Every structure is written in C-alpha cells, then in structure tokens.
C-alpha cells in the first residue's frame, strides 16, 4: 500500500544518510522530448540529490520504450541528446552515475525471455498502470494494446535487475510496475537460485505525488505542448508564465483542491524561492495573480540560471560531450549486463562448453 511504501521510504532515506554504499538506483526517461519543469521538480532534482549523497545512480534513456505507445518515435538522436544534456545540466555527473541508451545494451533484453516465463498473462492483465496506459493508447491510436505495451512491466524488470538495482524512485502510480519486478526476482531466485538468492527484490523509494501543471492547467507533459522546457530561454520563461492560466479570484491563497492553477504556480515559485506555498501565498495576498506570476517568473529564471548556463556551455561543444557520456555509460552498462546474463545462463543451465 502507499502508506506502507511511504513509511518504508523514510527508513530507506535514513539508511542512505547513514551509509549510501549498498544502494543502487535504477531509473530513467523515455526520450519523447526535452525535459521540463515537471521532470526537474518531481524526479531530476531527487536523482541528483541521491547521487550527491553517494548512492550509485544508473539512468536508462529508454529509447525502445518510446514505441510502446506511438508509431513514430520522432527524431531519436536529437531527443536523446536533449535528455542527456538536461541530465548533465541538472547535475548528473557521468563520473559517478551511468547514463546509457536501452537499445545499445542487447544482453539486457536477453533477460526478457526467462523473465517472461515467470509471470502469467492474468497477472499482467491485473496491472492497473498497464490498463490505464492501454486506454490512453487506444484513445491516441485507436487500436488495441500491443504485446510490447502489455509486457512493459517485465521489460522494466529487466531494466532494473540487469544491474542488480535495489532501489527505484517511483510515484504512487508506478508501485504496481515495481511489484512485477519483485515477483520476477523472487520467482527467478526460487526456481534457479534457491541456495543463494541471485537477484535483489528492489524496493520503492516513494517520490512525493507531485503533479506539476502546464500553462493550460492540465498535467505538464512533453507531448501536450504545455510544458516549460528546462532549456527554454528567459524570454520564453517570461512569456510562459504570462499566459499561464489562473482564476478570477483576486486574493491569492494556497488552496490546491479549489484553485489548482494558482496552487501550481505557488508550488513552483516556492520550490525555487526556497519557501512554502502557504508563505508565498501570504506574501502575495491581495496583490493578485499578476504579482504572483511576476514573483514565480523571477524565482524560476533565477533558480534555473545555473542549469541553463551549464546546458548552453555543454551544447556549444557540439555533440562531443553527449557522445562521450553515452559511450562510457553504454560500455559500463554492457559490461554489467554481460556479466548478469552469463550468471543467468549458468544458473539456468544454458551455459554450454
Ligand atoms: P509524455 O507526454 O511523452 O508522456 P511526459 O512529459 O508526461 O511525457 P514522461 O516521460 O511520461 O513525461 O514522465 C516521466 C516521469 O516524469 C513520470 O513518471 C513522472 O514521474 C515525471 N513527470 C512527468 N511529467 C510530470 C509532471 N507534470 N509533474 C510531475 N511529474 C512529472
Ligand atoms: Mg507521460
């Protein structure tokens, strides 16, 4: 349950503060567009925090997963480059963290075959996140769920277990996915490694269920065209918040249920100004939405200034920096995946002289 995961996550945070060395975090993004403010606030900042705390962080740029819910993967080389630049600009350090593209690690995908044998169709059918994504794909593409989408949680198990990841930052909606990974690990161990468990049963590090809204009041999303990209210029940022939706009430209050758009601006402003939404609402008060937008714009422009400066400097280097980071990350991921696959063959008895 979410409450249990919450309590366990607090324990894990305490354990990390004490000794981060036993933890390996696996997480990543689908390269469907440059990263935006929602990614930074909900995931990217906390990945950097974990890395800086000494946890090993492995980031998969999940390029194969782009085709789970769309026919046209877009300009993958350009988008992958954007995502990697966003990682680096946000503070991911390729000396300490591993960044790789999914398609470049074939041994990882070989784990799918045995893993698929460890789950039943009925179990996959019960996964609520798969159900929700199937509905979304149906709406977008007007056809039934593909086998790729249906088996998505098993792919995720391979992504996590290939490097023996034992900690996965997830929002509450992703908990069912992780349950599949835990099931796969447990059953693999029961079947092939009864004497000494081989795969860890990864745990969730529950991220706060924070949804950042876009300028139209809906969830900020790469594909909705309502996002403030991290790489946007100052002018674009000013215009973005000028057109952001608010409401007709003059006095600014933090009331997420009744006033979601205003609450969203307050959360964003508070995040970058190092205050709370309530305190920010108090300070704007009767000055109204115009004042609120000005305050939020300043906070975001200031808060993102170092990230954007780093990103521009990295991008000015052409493709060299990104190519180098991916080459190193992919090499490291391949070494790990090859070793895991060899172990799996050994355990399953499919290692031939
Ligand atoms: P797409 O439109 O292609 O689905 P997206 O912008 O919704 O892209 P995803 O790649 O689906 O981004 O999101 C990856 C993860 O980033 C999510 O699981 C979630 O944790 C986080 N995230 C994305 N958008 C937001 C948002 N608006 N608020 C909070 N978290 C977000
Ligand atoms: Mg999405």
UniProtKB/TrEMBL annotation:
GO molecular function terms listed in the Swiss-Prot or TrEMBL record: tryptophan-tRNA ligase activity
InterPro entries: aa-tRNA-synth_Ic, Rossmann-like_a/b/a_fold, Trp-tRNA-ligase, Trp-tRNA_synthetase
Name of the protein: Tryptophan--tRNA ligase
Top-rank lineage group of the source organism: Bacteria
Signal peptide: none
The organism's taxonomic lineage, starting at the top: Bacteria, Bacillati, Actinomycetota, Actinomycetes, Micrococcales
Gene3D superfamilies given in the database record: HUPs, Tyrosyl-Transfer RNA Synthetase
Organism: Isoptericola luteus
Family: Belongs to the class-I aminoacyl-tRNA synthetase family.
Keywords noted in UniProt: Aminoacyl-tRNA synthetase, ATP-binding, Ligase, Nucleotide-binding, Protein biosynthesis
């Amino acid at each position: 349950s979410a409450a249990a995961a919450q309590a366990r996550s607090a324990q894990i945070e305490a354990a990390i503060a004490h000794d981060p060395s036993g933890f390996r975090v696996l997480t990543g993004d689908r390269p469907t567009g440059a990263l935006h403010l929602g990614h930074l606030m909900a995931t990217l900042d906390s990945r950097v925090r974990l890395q800086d705390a000494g946890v090993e962080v492995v980031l998969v740029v999940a390029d194969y997963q782009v085709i789970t819910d769309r026919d046209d993967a877009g300009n993958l080389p350009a988008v992958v480059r954007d995502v990697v630049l966003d990682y680096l600009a946000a503070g991911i350090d390729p000396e300490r963290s591993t960044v790789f593209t999914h398609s470049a690690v074939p041994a990882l995908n070989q784990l799918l075959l045995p893993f698929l044998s460890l789950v039943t169709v009925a179990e996959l059918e019960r996964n609520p996140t798969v159900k929700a994504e199937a509905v979304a794909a149906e709406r977008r593409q007007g056809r039934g769920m593909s086998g790729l989408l249906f088996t998505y949680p098993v792919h995720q198990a391979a992504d996590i277990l290939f490097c023996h990841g034992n900690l996965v930052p997830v929002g509450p909606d992703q908990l069912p996915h992780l349950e599949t990974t835990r099931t796969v690990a447990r059953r693999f161990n029961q079947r092939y490694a009864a004497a000494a468990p081989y795969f860890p049963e990864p745990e969730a590090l529950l991220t706060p269920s924070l949804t950042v809204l876009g300028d139209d009041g809906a969830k900020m999303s790469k594909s909705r065209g309502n996002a403030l990209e991290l790489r946007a210029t100052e002018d674009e940022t000013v215009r973005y918040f000028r057109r952001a939706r608010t409401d007709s009430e003059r006095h600014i209050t933090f009331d997420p249920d009744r006033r979601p758009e205003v609450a969203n601006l307050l959360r964003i402003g508070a995040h970058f100004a190092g205050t709370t939404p309530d305190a920010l609402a108090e300070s704007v008060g009767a000055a109204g939405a115009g004042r609120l937008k000005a305050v939020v714009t300043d906070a975001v422009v200031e808060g993102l200034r170092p990230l954007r400066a780093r990103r521009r400097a990295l991008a000015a280097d052409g493709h060299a920096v990104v190519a180098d980071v991916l080459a190193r990350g992919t090499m490291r991921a391949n070494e790990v995946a090859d070793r895991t696959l060899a172990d799996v063959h050994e355990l399953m008895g499919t290692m031939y002289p």
